[in-house]
Amino acid sequence: MPEIEIPVGPQHPALKEPESFRFEVDGEIVKSVDIRLGYVHRGIEKACQDRTWVQAVYLIERICGICSHSHTTCFCQAVEEIAGIEVPRRARFIRSLFGEMERIHSHLLWLGLAGHEVGFDSLFMYAWHDREIILDALESISGNRVNYGMNTIGGVRRDVTEKDVDELGRALDLLEERVKYYTDVALNEATFRSRLEGVGKITREQAIDLGTVGPTARSAGVDVDLRRDDPYAAYDEIPFRVITADGGDLLAAAVVRLGEIEESLKIIRYIIENLPDGPIAVKAPRRIPAGEACSRYEAPRGEDIHYVRSGGGDKPLRVKVRAPTLANINAVAQSMRGARVADIPIIIAGIDPCFSCTDRMVRLDDVSSGRTEVLTWAQLSARCRASR
Amino acid sequence: MDFLADLFKLLVFPGFLFVVNFGLFLEWVDRKIYARMQHRVGPPWYQPWLDTIKLFTKEDVIPEKANPFMFTFLPVLDLAAAVTAFLYLPFGGFSSVNPFPGDLVVVVFFLTLSTLLLFLIGWYSGSPFGRVGSLRAVTQFLAYEVPLVLSLLTPALLAGSWSISTIKIVMAQNLSRFLPVTLLALAVSLLSLQGKLLRVPFDAPEAETEIVAGPLTEYTGRRLAFIRLAERAELVVGAGLISNLFLPFDKVLGMLGFFVSCVVVVFGLSVLRASFARLRIEDTTLISWKYLIPFSALGMALAIMVRG
User: Fold this and answer.
1) pLDDT tens per residue across span A167-209
2) Distance CA A39, CA B279 (A)
3) Which domain of life does this protein belong to (chain A) (predicted)?
4) Which of A15, B76, B141, B261 could anchor a disulfide with B247, C-beta 3.0 to 4.6 Å?
């Protein structure tokens, strides 16, 4: 049979965001894949330069709809480092608390999507149904379900009350039971298991060479977790286990993520039992002294890096974001070779991709003439209409 | 007048209008059960009709790479094949439009025709997703067709006839004796029917997240509505056939019995749909040849032993 080119994306039901994957397939076997990023670049880094430090926090929060807290914490840590601000202990605990709640809802979201990608929509509906428990808890504390607006430079904006702690405790009991059930389903339901086992496999060496981060790296047996390796917020005081697995396939990824949910539940329990008293924020200056800093954060999808430079003004000179998906996307290209067409969506979903967070500006050169041009928005849309 | 009566039979009852509406009703039953099993509310009873009406009012598009004649002709033929198959089914006290010894084979033939038409639909739509989906549909056809036919032949063996109405009479008379014997064949036929109708876990040919909609990817509007109606009609024929051969309640309950046994069949199909992840196409073939076919053969052997 001749080789067929199957385009997955920019628009495709398996992708929740536009990104382009072009597969050369021979029957049901993938021969090669060409990944093209750049369909949802939003220019947030540049836009941050036109905003004050505090305004930039709100924009940074909107980089990702799932790990919104990760990005703001990462950004605030960098700014606090430049300005030499000491964040109060209670604020650091609350940052960790939200980080873990975010991890739970992100991993449950992944589990549901993984079910959907392999056609197991019942798991999708169940996982997202129970994800509401943690989203409701987030809403009752912060007032919002996904963009919590908790972080500010110098601490957090809202306190966690006794009432919140009680409600959260009840939510945790419920979740713990449900997560046990999902772990059982994911590891023992024959059809679901057969769709994950041995699929999207990378070895430990490949995981290191390709620079993978987060659950993708941990599922291949690479023992990395910034919460332990480079503690931030309150993680230096909190006992927890780093979950790793050996398989390197998607079953291992599921094991790692489900294990991390259980671990996060324990961390949250520790935090609400040991929440220190004190102020939740210190006042940050309007102008941040000149300097630069790089901050790292273990987001649910892996290591998030923010680089911030200040010129001493009330606006950042440069903000640079490296979201975890960019580090993991190479693992997708690697494990795609020789994969079956049926496994394409679950392999892409396996790294829990977040494309709009990751996207870079792409410059397309006209290869035939070597000419580079700069287009205005009006010219670009006129050209798009002409090619339709 | 004969001509008008025939036309009425073809177009209204038990032909086109009845099959299509009953199919849409069964679609609602399926969607509602599926939704309730997933903690969802599910659609109101009239939703399938609204969906169909909406499709008929949508923009009419023929892709540049598609063959325009085949693109239009095949969906119509698909619906015609499925509706014609139903004409050969007796139900609810009515005999079929044209009963003759051997009509079981004709119904199975029309069901097979639908699958082959689906292959052509995907092949001529000029889309890579359509082609991959078509190839998968044919591969899957090789997987479930044999167990489906073998399990449908089990009641035929018990009754010693190829005529659906005869099988039905014999099965209804000896229901308490024959139903336990045919349970195995009933299970196999439900699973194979699930494969025939391309539903989870056997929906690889239409796998949404992999190949968009498989053979139907390029379709929209009226033509898609025709294919969807044909799929619903196939559901009616499949459920009706199993109901006639295995669960002939309508000998006792009349029309209500037919509805009840069809809903029972659809309930079984919905539970299957809600409990599994999608199988890869090679796993479908493997499961079919490793389990379904041996079990259907076993079912036949049981029937032969009981009949003596």
Assistant:
1) 888 888 889 888 888 888 888 888 888 888 888 888 888 888 8
2) 32
3) Bacteria
4) B261
DSSP one-letter code for B66? S
Judging contacts by C-beta atoms under 8 Å, the chain B residues touching residue A336 are none
Once rounded to an integer, what is the mean pLDDT over residues B203-222?
A: 82
Bridge partners (DSSP) listed for residue A293: A308
Helix (H) or strand (E) holding B8: helix B2-11
- Is position A339 within any domain? no
Using a CB-CB cut-off of 8 Å, the residues of chain B touching A28 are 281-282
- Provide the domain count of chain A: 1
* Range(s) of the domain holding residue A97: 44-326
Q: What is the pLDDT of residues A59-85, one digit of tens each?
A: 999 888 888 899 999 999 999 999 888
Work out the mean pLDDT of chain B and round it to a whole number: 84
Contacts with A340 from chain B: Cβ below 8 Å: 280, 282
Question: B128–A5: do the CB atoms touch at under 8 Å?
Answer: yes
Query: What tokens does B80 get?
Result: 């015609």
Beta-sheet strand order (sheet of A302-310): A291-299, A302-310, A316-322
B216 touches chain A (CB under 8 A): no
Searching chain B, which residue's CA lies closest to the CA of residue A15?
B209
Q: Which residue of B has its CA nearest to A125?
A: B38
Q: In chain A, positions 312-351, which contact chain B (CB-CB < 8 Å)?
A: 340-345
Q: Over range B155-161, report the average pLDDT.
A: 83
Q: How crowded is the C-beta side of B16, counted as CA atoms within 13 Å?
A: 12
Q: Is the ipTM of this complex over 0.85?
A: no
Instruction: Give the distance from residue A314's alpha carbon to the nearest chain B alpha carbon, in angstroms.
Output: 47
Residue A30 falls inside a structural domain: no
- Read off the pLDDT of residues A314-368 as tens digits, 9 standing for 90 and up: 899 999 988 888 888 888 888 888 888 888 888 888 888 888 888 777 666 666 7
Query: What's the burial of B257, exposed, middle or buried (CB within 10 Å: 0-12/13-18/19+)?
Result: buried
- Inter-chain contact B278–A120, Cβ cutoff 8 Å? yes
Q: Does A198 touch chain B (CB under 8 A)?
A: no
Query: Which of A3, A8, A23, A28 to mutate to probe the B interface, most B CBs <10 Å?
Result: A28
The reply to whether residue A13 touches residue B208, judged by beta carbons under 8 angstroms, is: yes
CATH number at residue A259: 1.10.645.10
- Global pTM reads 0.84
Q: Is residue A281 part of a domain?
A: yes
Query: Per the domain annotation, does A11 fall within a domain?
Result: no
Query: Contact at 8 Å (CB) between A183 and A89?
Result: no
